Structures are given as structure tokens and as C-alpha cells.
Amino acid sequence: MPITLDKKLPAVDILNNENIFVMDDKRASNQDIRPIEVLIVNLMPTKEATETQLLRYLSNTPLQINVDFLYMATHESKNTRPEHLQTFYKTFEDIKDKYYDGLIITGAPVEKLPFDEVDYWEELSQIFDWKHNHVYSTLHLCWGAQAGLYYKYGIDKVKIGYKLSGVYSQKVVERLSPLMRSFDDFFLSPHSRHTEVLESDILNRTNLQILAKGDQVGLSILSSRDMREVYSFGHLEYDRDTLGKEYLRDSKLNKKTAIPVNYFPKDDPEQEPELRWSLAASTFFTNWLNYAVYQETPYRLEDLERDSSYYGYL
């Protein structure tokens, strides 16, 4: 089954050209099933690119999925046209009475700021509170993962001292987790950040499982044992050229910007990067949708209101 989207969304044409099956909302209304409801809180500046990246992997499943996009009403987006947000996005006020099987909170280019100084932190905190009774499983990505850990456990991010940018190897350390099913012992993933979360903080202050980590990247993927909270510090969703675009952007501001590690062939920015993480990305997002969302979420999403066990998960 396909992912269901507004047929005017720019990502639809891109995905159709890649032979990824998407269904417009009119056709989907005739399907006699209960589709999976997913909310994407898109905090990235290049929202249209992030939409396509995430939808590409969410589409790789036999499940029918309805997707809503949400933006921060308290933040002025400088890189996305207002008409795009008005047409395809919702605000928290629009969805606060809805229920979702899954929630994705993306990264954001604000990691150098203290969380409390991010201009939409109060609004995002409302979403963190709201999701307890309105969402079954939440997937936090990069800064979204750091923000989720800070809000729930008080664990702050730590500056690395340089930008961790490149394609790095990670080792699966918790093979029994369904989220790691079908992974090889090692997999590659892009990372792009200036900060990290310390493993000692996770071990000492939470009961989260460490599913994958790497010598260069540190922690990579964490999860609660019931998979209702998942944290990924990399960017498995990135396109082939995303790190390259970030490098060109940064190098215009600082000529000493380091070339992303293990990314351009022979470290030559003139050459096309090799795509080496797509299989891991597809496996990870499919596992999340299947094992953390579809097989566990209640048929009646309204029952989440009565699921008090959520508050005590570990």
C-alpha cells in the first residue's frame, strides 16, 4: 500500500518519478482500511527537501499511511515560502485534538543555542507534553533527539569542538531490538552536528537501550524498551547530495570549512558522492513503522488517552 499525500505537494512528483507509489487523498478515501496516521514536525530550514527525504522512506512499506506536516507557529521560516506552509502544513492548534500512531521530530540548525533560548522551545515543549496522550511512538532525529532527551530526562547536549560532518560507521550493539532487525553488524550513516549526548548520561540517568554507536560519532540510535521513544543522532534520511550542499553553504562563509569525512571520492568536492546508507535508512524506517508503530498501536487511537502506562515506560 502507498503513502497518502496531498497531490499538490511538490514531493509527490519527485517520488512518482522515482517509481515510488503514492496515492492522492481522494483515491485513498475509498480504501476500506484504517491507515497509519503519522505527524512530522519539520524543524529543518529546507522543509521541502526534508519532506521528500522522509516520505521516500516512509513510502517503502506495505502499509497505507496518512501524513500531516506541522511547523512552529512561533518561528518565522526564512527558507520556505509562506504559501507552502499555509497549503501543506498545520499548526499545533490545528492538530492538538487529533491522535497519531507515529510522530517524527526532525533536526534543526539551532544546536549551538541552549534549548531554552530557541525561539519555539515553549511551543515544542507543548508538543512533548501533548504526545504522551496523543501519539504511540515518537522518532526523534538529530537535534530533535537531543531536545527530546533534554525535555524528558534533563540530559543536556555537549559541544564537540568541531563540526561532525560526514558518513561514518556505526556498530549495532543491541541485536535483539526489532529496530535493528536485518541490519548488518556495521552500517553507514551521515552525521552533521556540533554537539553530542554522552553515553554515561544515558547509562546513569535513563533505562534507554543503546542500539547502535560508533567510535567517531558516539551514540547513534537509542530506544525505550517498548519502542515508544526512539532517538537517532544521525541523518539516515539525507539525500546523496545533502552533506555536499551543507559543505558548499558553510565554505562560502568560512573557507577553512572541513570537507565531510568519508563522503566525496578522494575528498574531491567536484566528484559526486557515493550513496552508501540508503539500505540502512530503508531498513530503519521500515522497522520503526512496522515494529514500533503498526504492530503495537491501538486500533482506536483515542484509547491512547486511557493508556496511563505510557508515563512509566522505560
Description:
It contains 10 helices and 12 strands. 31% of the residues lie in helices and 24% in strands. It has one domain: Rossmann fold (3-Layer(aba) Sandwich). Strands 1, 2, 3, 4, 5, 6, 7, 8, 9, 10, 11 and 12 form a 12-stranded mixed sheet that branches. The model is unreliable at 310-314 (pLDDT under 50). Helix 1 crosses helix 3 (47-58). It has helices spanning 10-17, 25-28, 47-58, 82-88, 92-95, 121-134, 143-153, 199-205, 242-253, 278-294, and strands at residues 3-5, 22-24, 36-41, 65-70, 89-90, 100-105, 135-141, 158-172, 186-196, 209-214, 218-223, 229-232. Strand 6, helix 6 and strand 7 (135-141) form a beta-alpha-beta unit. The protein is α/β, with parallel strands linked by helices and 314 residues long. InterPro entries: Class_I_gatase-like (IPR029062), HST_MetA (IPR005697), MetA_family (IPR033752). This is Homoserine O-acetyltransferase.
Which helices and strands occur, and which strands form pairs?
Blueprint (H helix, E strand, L loop, with lengths): L2 E3 L4 H8 L4 E3 H4 L7 E6 L5 H12 L6 E6 L11 H7 E2 L1 H4 L4 E6 L15 H14 E7 L1 H11 L4 E15 L13 E11 L2 H7 L3 E6 L3 E6 L5 E4 L9 H12 L24 H17 L20
Helix pairs in contact: 1-3
